[in-house]
Design goal:
The chain is α/β, with parallel strands linked by helices. Helix content is about 45%, strand content about 15%. The protein has 19 helices and 11 strands. The strands form 3 sheets. Strands 6-5-11-8-9 form a 5-stranded mixed β-sheet. α2 (about 20-25) runs parallel beside α6 (about 90-105).
Length: about 425
């Protein structure tokens, strides 16, 4: 994606663009495409890390209903900005993956569901789709293969819950984005009550490379069970925040200190959230021992999610940081499930009181109890997205939470005020 003007179709074609589509249409049967992706061990980049080829194989082979594909471009996880960059700079890479995936599962209609705020990105995507139609890369009889595919963009209304695949499907159908109970799963009953595949932008962008170069090539990048390149979104207190493409399994320590240039202003590392705001935090001691792939991060006690790596230095108030996370999930809860609707609000209120100096020591235990009762008791995992940070922040930085109660104020704000006065 470092190629200048890659969003332009002529530039993309000059760099072997749509070569994988031609191979998938003329040289491979649908089941061969699925098997190649299965054998590559490509796992979903949208957070769940589910094997992509396996997901495709769930689509009924002789469906009497139309099959749909939805590209999930509703990137709303705090700390994550990979899909936005791909949509802006390499829209045809994702479109090529869409075509191949549709060929594999027998879909003749695909939707690119974009985050509501992605106005500029939708314009770029619409332009790329129009260019692809003009070159017979989309539409009727693609490349003379006899395969038809119509692709549409659809913007959401700016709700985080639309990133959950069944909430996305409800929104696509024009309804409120309440996540669905499962089963039935989207592969059996998805968009418009028909079999549907939902894949993330980054996941689909990997597919053309697998088809062009083969599963063995792909598996040779990073760990065999969690292979391939990965876009890491590095933000927070680092000298060089940004988006970096690195092999799966890349050491988190090297990402922060070598790629990211170390901690801002020479401060000490305090904590790292490895996958976006919805996952358990690593302490500084834990973070320097972790390799960034799905299995290694899970084994270390967190989840890699979308690889939204959020770095916090020694000056970070962990109560305030958790309060900010709680505010986000309380605001974004769709309200369908009581444990999420009430629990997110309860946790945010407790943290507001702690940060303001009104907290009680027993509030720390209540935070954990509420989080435990939220987790696993709702239709989707939004409740878990707050439960997991609470269950890691509070025990790992308990001294700091207790200090807020004992002092009756935030000790970090006192220090900030003194620093400002000294300056």
């Amino acid at each position: 994606m470092d190629i200048p003007e890659l969003r332009r179709l002529d530039v993309y074609l000059a760099h072997d663009g749509y070569k994988a589509v031609r191979k998938a249409l003329f040289d491979m049967k649908p089941e061969e495409i699925i098997n190649e992706v299965k054998n590559s061990n490509l796992r979903g980049r949208g957070g769940a890390a589910f094997p992509t080829g396996v997901k495709w194989s769930f689509i009924p082979k002789e469906s009497k209903k139309p099959v749909y594909l939805c590209c999930n471009a509703d990137e709303s996880e705090p700390g994550t900005f990979a899909n936005r960059y791909e949509l802006e700079n390499d829209p045809h890479g994702m479109l090529e993956g869409v075509i191949i995936a549709c060929r594999a599962v027998g879909a003749h209609t695909a939707y690119v569901y974009l985050r509501g705020e992605f106005t500029a990105q939708k314009k770029i995507m619409d332009g790329a789709i129009a260019d692809a139609y003009a070159k017979n890369l989309l539409g009727k009889n693609i490349m003379g293969s006899g395969f038809d595919l119509e692709v549409y963009t659809h913007r959401g209304a700016g709700a985080y819950i639309c990133g959950e695949e069944t909430g996305l499907l409800e929104s696509l159908e024009g309804k409120r984005a309440y996540p669905r109970n499962r089963p039935p799963f989207p592969a059996i009953q998805g968009a418009f009550a028909s079999p549907t595949v939902v894949n993330n932008v980054e996941t689909l962008s990997n597919v053309p490379h697998i088809i062009n170069r083969g599963a063995d090539w792909y598996k040779a990048i990073g760990p065999e069970k969690s292979p391939g390149p990965k876009l890491f979104c590095l933000s927070g207190h680092v000298n060089k925040p940004g988006l970096y493409e690195l092999p799966m399994g890349f050491p988190l320590k090297d990402l922060i200190y070598d790629v990211g240039g170390g901690i801002l202003n020479g401060k000490a590392l305090k904590g790292v959230i490895p996958g976006g705001s919805s996952f358990p935090i690593f302490t500084a001691e834990e973070a320097v021992k972790v390799n960034m792939d799905f299995d290694s991060v899970r084994a270390a006690g967190s989840l890699m999610g979308t690889a939204g790596v959020m770095v916090m230095n020694e000056d970070t108030c962990m109560v305030d940081a958790l309060k900010t996370i709680a505010h986000f999930y309380h605001h974004e809860s769709c309200g369908q499930c009581t444990p999420c609707r009430e629990g997110c609000g309860w946790i945010e209120k407790l943290l507001i009181d702690l940060e303001a100096g009104r907290g009680k020591m027993d509030d720390l235990n209540v935070l954990i109890d509420v989080a435990i009762n939220m987790e696993g008791n709702t239709i989707c995992v939004l409740a878990d997205s707050l439960s997991m940070p609470v269950k890691s922040f509070v025990p790992k930085y308990r001294d700091e939470f207790e200090a807020h109660v004992k002092l009756g104020r935030c000790p970090f704000k006192d220090r900030d005020q003194k620093s400002a006065q000294a300056a």
